[in-house]
Every structure is written in C-alpha cells, then in structure tokens.
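In the laboratory, one determines a bound structure by crystallizing the protein with its ligand and collecting diffraction data. In a computational setting the workflow is compressed into a single prediction: the sequence and the ligand go in, and a structural description comes out. We illustrate the idea with zinc ion.
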Amino acid sequence: MNFKIKVEAIVLSILMLSIVSCISCSDSDTKTTENVSDSTILNVDASLFLTSTSAVTITTVPCTLSDGTSTDCYKIVATSTPSDHEMGPWCPINISDDASAGGIWLENGQVYDVDGAFIKNMATFYNDTNWHMYDANGAIYKTETQEDCANAANPNVGVEYENFCVECLPSYVAGLTQTYYIPVTPVKQATATNFGGGPPGRGDAGPSQRGIAFNGVVFDAPAPTDAILGAYTLAPFDDAGGHINFNAGYHYHAATGVSTQIAQADTHAAMIGYALDGHGLYAQLDANDSEPTDLDACRGHYDAIRGYHYHADAPGNNNFINCLYGAYAN
Ligand SMILES: [Zn+2]
Ligand SMILES: [Zn+2]
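The predicted complex, in structure-token form:
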C-alpha cells in the first residue's frame, strides 16, 4: 500500500466512522452533514388531501422530474373552492365596519385586520394623502362586478381604479380548475432551486407556486403588494390568507392556520400541505409557539419522523418558503 492509498483509506474510515456516529446525533448535527443521504424519506400521503368532495381529485401518472428522474407523480386537479372553510370576506363596506366585515393585509411582517378603521387610516398608515378609499358617508369604494375584478386584480390596473378595494368573488371563478403535479417520492438535491416567475431575465427555472394545501388550494408566490399599493389599490386576503384572481382562482399568500392542519404526535408544528417537490409543508410554529432554529435557506430541515420538510414563513411576511430542495415535476 503506497502512502497516498494509505491516507485515502484513513480518510475513508474516518468518514465512515463519522457517518455511523451521526446516526445518534442531534438535529443540529444532522444539518451540517446535509441531507441528500437523509435516511427518512416519506412518500406523499395522498389520503391526507380532502378528496371526499369533487374539489380535489388525485390520480397517479408517470412524470419526469427536474433532475431527470423518471418516476410517478400525483396529478392533483383542484377547483377554486376549498371544502374546509368559507372564502372571504375581503373588503369591508363602510369605515364603521368591524374586523368581521373584512379580511387581512400583510405589511412589514405584520398581519393587519382590514376593518373600516384600517381603510379610514390608510393615508396615515402609508404616509401618503393620495389614499382616500371612501366617500362622504364612509362607504368604501370597491370592485362590484366581474368586469371590475378583471380590470383591477392585475398588476397593470388603470388609474380609474385608484382608491378601490379590490375583491373578486368565488362565483367569478366557479368553473375554474387548476392542475398540479408533485412527485410521489421526493428526491432531495444537493443544491436548492429558486422559484421562477420573478422579473423577466432573472433566470430562475423553478415553478412559481410553492405548494398545495390539503383542500387543493395553492400556496402561491408572494402577492405583488408593491404593485397593488403603487396603483393605490388594496387587494385584501381573507382570514385564511387567500383571495381570488382570474388566473389562479382562490389562492393563499399566508398560512394563518385556517385550512386543514394535521396535528403531530410530538410538539412539532402541524402539517398544512405539501411543497411542489413532494416534501411536507408544516406551520411556522410548534406547540410551544416556537419556530425551528435550524432551518436552511429554503426554510427546510430534517428530522427522523418527517424526513426533510419545510416550515411556512410568518403570515405577515407574505411568503411560505424560499426555494425548493427537491426535484419538481417539469
Ligand atoms: Zn394573489
Ligand atoms: Zn420541522
């Protein structure tokens, strides 16, 4: 055995020793070894989705993942109607209305009730006197028709909708369905994929959508709140963190704990759905109201019970997760 081979043998045995010793190591140690070789890999549990109504239909189809893996995916076809909670309200009617008449708004990490007082206070809140979303009687200007919704719920909203509270009603998208593909078995990658759908030319290849709730509603990309506010409109989310547009139907921008959650036997945060790469998606906070301290850049981490999985961001951040560590269906 020459010297070089001997050194390699020693390095190899140290490496194997550290892998063996890591079987009993803590979560934080596991993270430093990175998770491509995680021992717990859970298949997506299709039975967790709410398929008892026609709102969600799941079939298994062959698919090719972003890393070239040929495998099976779940094809999830969902209507825009969650079966586990009501949608809305979004815009209150009068500046005297309480929080039950409106939804929420997300700003600087905080969740604000869009009640009458919030609408009345917008010029102060945004330090801009152009905000004035109500008439002399306190009635709030808001979109009233499907045509208003089509015109106002897009990033290029015209000036005629300045100082309108924008809400699109479920009846406008009653016939809409969405189709998603997620790998039955998640395949973790050595590097993360950023989400696509950003500004043109940024080059991110990934999907723009983050995941799917058990009711079939998509956890969507952050709402373009700068564009919405820049047009002097407000497009509130309901208390479940969702609102409606013509392309996406009803979709979430915040995990507020309203859609179906699967409680965990330990103190770990409840499960709220799956990310598009087939890894589980969990609430931000555990039973002690604490966020995990070892999340990676995507907001994921590993444990032996759940395998690699993500934790949703705080609802006030208009965000769920930051990237995908698993391969996704092309
Ligand atoms: Zn939206
Ligand atoms: Zn966790």
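The pocket of zinc ion (ligand 1) is lined by residues 220, 223, 243, 245, 251, 253 (CB under 6 Å). Keep in mind that any predicted model is a hypothesis to be tested, not a measurement.
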